[in-house]
Amino acid sequence: MARLKLDISTSLDGFVAGPNATLENPLGVGGDLLHEWVVPLASWRAPHGLEGGETGADDELFAEYLAFQGAVIMGRKMFSGGAGPWADDPNAAAWWGDDPPFHVPVFVLTHHPREAEVKQGGTTFTFVTDGIESALEQARAAAGDKDVALAGGASVAQQYLKAGLLDEIQIHVANVLLGGGTHLFGTLGIDPSHVETTRVVASPSVTHIRFEVPRV
Amino acid sequence: MARLKLDISTSLDGFVAGPNATLENPLGVGGDLLHEWVVPLASWRAPHGLEGGETGADDELFAEYLAFQGAVIMGRKMFSGGAGPWADDPNAAAWWGDDPPFHVPVFVLTHHPREAEVKQGGTTFTFVTDGIESALEQARAAAGDKDVALAGGASVAQQYLKAGLLDEIQIHVANVLLGGGTHLFGTLGIDPSHVETTRVVASPSVTHIRFEVPRV
Description:
The structure is a homodimer of 216-residue chains.
Chain A (H helix, E strand, L loop, with lengths): L3 E7 L4 E3 L24 H4 L11 H11 L1 E7 H5 L24 E5 L7 E2 L5 E5 L3 H12 L3 E6 L1 H9 L5 E7 L1 E2 L4 E2 L9 E2 L1 E7 L3 E7 L4
Parallel strand pairs in A: 1-7, 1-8, 3-4, 3-7, 4-6
Antiparallel strand pairs in A: 2-10, 5-6, 8-13, 12-13
């Protein structure tokens, strides 16, 4: 069965987004620094329709991340930055235009029903209103023999972790201090536990730590 | 001039102590898990008067940490867990008995004057009431041609960082999820910035990420 995997970038001081996130700046102040390691990579540029880019350990790792994805799950906040009825959401069309970089079925968790959309390049957006288990079931069915990427944000990640549905996490510790912002699992209330680290890859700009999620 | 270096263990979700810290459990719920990587090491056991222990990459790294220390700075909270006048502090004698594991001069930041104490094995405790710069000046003088270790806790580390007096940080990311607790730089309000990572060492139980502190 397809595994559910979370990849998320964090600062050295443990923030997955900077303070004061807004619709214009959804990652908060300084939050874009967290992702500077990924944007120059050849494997990031290709699905965005861009040529060239950096190769090396980070690039291989990101290519692997894309290759395992048979489907993607994300929260409404990550999709549009908004909340509430879609008619009132100024970014209801999301961030990515007509040819989003996912190229697989994407399942968006929301409380507000909406028709599915077929985009160019293999990306579909399906809006799931009946909960995280339903979204996972649909994503697994769509993923075939590949795995499911949990794209975020932190709130959705916490819900899946707390429900015992998350199989693997890879944190990408960027060489950045943010000094404030959103924590990955800050309000979770899980019991403290050891995890099994399965791989660490380091480059000058980011340290990738992958681990199995304990069943709590 | 002696450099000021902070080494601190953190969980994968970015906590340097668990929730609900008390005098009996100063690291909070689950906080002891953060340090399980260090306690079995031969280089940790030796200064505690214990024989044997694990060798390998983590052990070499911890031996290096001890070897650079010509002096140590710590906060009152780390010294005794208490606050306020020493006469009212039930743990005023601190955690470590007559032969503390430091074996170098230790400078304790406090608002409450107290006579210096000479312990066995080379450890002295000097209580500094005139601020972090004075403590650093005294520690540097004591350190000779070695460096100064900032032992913690998080509040003291933030003060030194914010004052631009901290030279290097090494975070030890333990293979632990805590789900809540104290963040290293959670309330600092520094500007987001890149740092220069100078080394990453990984073992199955902990990933050590060392970086130069930017002058903010």
